[in-house]
Design a protein that fits this description.
Order of helices and strands of chain A: HEHHEHEHHEHEHEEEHEEHEHEHH
Largest interface: A-B, 29 and 31 residues
Distance between the termini of chain B: 22 Å
Radius of gyration of chain A: 19 Å
Shape of chain B: globular
Number of helices of chain B: 10
Number of helices of chain A: 13
Oligomer: heterodimer
Largest sheet of chain B: 5 strands, parallel
Strand order of the largest sheet of chain A: 2-1-3-4-6-5-10
Order of helices and strands of chain B: HHHEHHEHEEEHHEHEH
Strand content of chain B: 5-15%
Radius of gyration of chain B: 17 Å
Number of strands of chain B: 7
Number of strands of chain A: 12
Helix content of chain B: 40-55%
Strand content of chain A: 15-25%
Largest sheet of chain A: 7 strands, mixed
Strand order of the largest sheet of chain B: 1-2-3-7-6
């Protein structure tokens, strides 16, 4: 496999090709074109690139206006500024009229690290998930980012595309198909299922290795499309393994963990453990050290898996 | 047009009375502005509400939608008897404008401050496609308190959006009282001028003056225009004029009847 690449970089690199594929595609920036690597698109299509300055609300509502004129605007900002500062513009002017705006955000999660709480999007997936008509895509690596991008642009409706700041290990082979809305099975195992998204997929892959070393078989689902959730994949996994763990770099309230818990509770109750930020704010620091401190690293995912398996076995004995 | 404006005023009173709630003061204030646009200024075709080359109108002060719905109905976008379904369940006429439910509504609006940003995006898209479309955005003066208005004002000037025309329905009142007491927004014209806009001040109930202002805006190149329209909240109904209590109050049957008598009709 090739060297780790941040999903935001893979996204920026793929944009010019998207510009060729989709003549109506426009790229909107809010003074972070360097962070989002949208400069290559701007160079290729200067007339289709617009900077709005440090004014995310204006950018978001302007995107709604452009979509109402038949364009496919892609707004670029950080998770906190899209889902919190410009939340109402997203909800009332994009999601409610179901306008074809793509919201590309970097800096989702604790993995933002050094910048600290102001720039760590920890609640964004929960907020966006609560808004009707929104689709949430949160890819694990550079390859799946590039495969999902044309699909979410072709999708007629608003999409929240959550990208990461830091290099992420490449997990997908170039020739492996990835389909928006369908979870991908990245590891097979019969004892427990880990359902993960974003950077937590590679962390979960490490956890699956740790478990395998101790004789525990873990199935790993990359739930890159957090909304709408691939409920069938969750239900199938519950039937196959009877115990589940979710792993997301987001609060455990309202995001992927909640979506999986809701699906299990209504369809096939099974022991579940949720890995994520546990109803608290983050802090500045090295991302790996933060993952350790906030109990989100591979070892914690593996421990959660063992706990879920123990709960399953406890139920079976009863 | 004066006859149409009077008709629209009557529609506003009747529909808000039938709905049992709504915003008569803000709607009556904007009657001439909306009438001038829909019956003289705008390049539109009611038989083709989705015609790409048409001019667009965004009612950023969306709570005044009775005036927009009445104008759309009288212009032929939908039958006038639908006006009486305002705010009812399953109605095409929502409490604030909905672009997917009401034929002729170009943009969903009503959460104050956002319309000018939407209009800026429309103006940029229209220019990119070399469309002749002009984009009109109607704001209230109280609405200017929203910060996003000034973000949008910056953007429109930065991109020299001369196909964008804002109108401020400058009636001096908002929900809680006089705008100058709640949170002063003056000096209004100077603010827009300093943001790089062409500013036209005009009487907001003078149809000919409004049409001239919009013509002058159309001829202004290289920068956006704002028409600051001096208006009276509740205009046309004596007991509603300049009374902030009529911002969001529904008239009783007796009050509606008196209002219509003043306008020369009966309930």
């Amino acid at each position: 496999m090739s060297a780790p690449v941040a999903t935001r970089v893979a996204y920026g690199e793929a944009l010019p090709e998207m510009g060729e594929l989709f003549p109506n595609l426009l790229v909107l920036d809010s003074d972070i074109s360097k962070a989002m690597h949208t400069g290559v698109f701007e160079e290729r299509f200067p007339e289709r690139h617009f900077d709005f300055g440090i004014a995310e609300q204006d950018m978001m509502a302007a995107a709604a206006g452009m979509a109402a004129m038949g364009k496919i605007p892609v707004v670029n900002t950080y998770a906190v500024f899209a889902a919190l500062r410009a939340c109402e513009q997203m909800r009332t002017f994009i999601a409610y009229p179901n306008l074809n705006v793509k919201i590309a955000v970097s800096h989702g999660g604790l993995a933002v690290g050094w910048d600290g709480v102001t720039h760590q999007g920890l609640e964004d997936m929960s907020i966006v998930r609560a808004i009707p008509n929104m689709t949430i895509v949160h890819p694990a690596d550079a390859v799946s980012t590039k495969k999902l991008l044309p699909q979410l642009i072709a999708h007629n409706g608003p999409v929240y595309f959550r990208l990461g700041r830091n290099p992420a290990p490449v997990l997908y082979a170039e020739d492996r198909p990835v389909t928006m809305g369908k979870a991908d099975v990245l590891a097979e195992g019969g004892d427990v299922t880990i359902v993960a998204c974003g950077l937590m997929v590679s962390e979960s892959l490490k956890a699956a290795e740790l478990l395998r070393e101790s004789g525990v078989g873990a199935r790993l689902l990359d739930m890159h499309t957090v909304k709408p959730l691939d409920a069938a994949a969750v239900i199938e996994s519950a039937a196959l393994t009877g115990a589940l763990v979710t792993a997301e770099d987001n609060t455990i309230l309202g995001g992927l963990g909640s979506a999986v818990a809701e699906t299990l509770a209504e369809n096939c109750p099974a022991p579940l453990r949720r890995i994520g930020v546990r109803d608290c704010f983050g802090e500045s620091g090295d991302p790996a050290a933060l993952f350790d401190k906030y109990e989100m690293s591979a070892a914690h995912i593996a421990a959660a898996a063992r706990s879920a398996i123990a709960a399953k076995q406890g139920r079976q004995r009863q | 047009m004066q006859r149409i404006a009077r008709q629209i005023r009557c529609d506003i009173i009747r529909m808000i009375h039938a709905a049992g709630s709504g915003h008569p003061g803000a709607s009556l204030s904007a009657v001439e502005i909306v009438t001038a646009l829909y019956f003289s200024v705008m390049n539109i075709d009611p038989s083709r509400p989705d015609w790409p080359r048409r001019d667009r109108f965004i009612l950023s002060k969306g709570h005044a939608c009775p005036v927009l719905y009445a104008a759309l109905a009288r212009r032929g976008y939908f039958p006038a008897d639908e006006l009486m379904t305002l705010r009812r369940i399953n109605s095409t006429l929502q409490g604030h404008p909905d672009m997917n439910k009401t034929p002729g509504v170009d943009m969903t609006s009503g959460s104050l401050g956002n319309g000018l940003s939407c209009g800026g995006g429309m103006a940029l898209a229209a220019r990119l496609d070399s469309l002749p479309a002009r984009i009109y955005v109607l704001l209230g003066d109280g609405e200017l308190q929203e910060g996003i208005v000034w973000e949008a004002a910056m953007t429109a000037a930065h991109y020299r959006l001369d196909n964008l025309c804002a109108i401020v329905d400058n009636n001096g009142l908002q929900l809680d009282g006089f705008t100058r007491d709640v949170m002063g927004v003056g000096p209004v014209s100077e603010k827009w001028r300093s943001f790089g806009w062409n500013v036209i001040e005009t009487g907001g109930h003078d149809l000919d003056a409004l049409v001239r202002a919009f013509e002058s805006a159309r001829e202004t190149k290289g920068r956006p225009t704002v028409v600051i329209a001096a208006t009276t909240k509740g205009k046309g109904v004596s007991f509603m004029e300049n009374e902030c209590g009529w911002h969001g109050r529904c008239p009783t049957g007796d009050e509606a009847a008196r209002a219509l008598v003043e306008l020369g009709e009966t309930l």
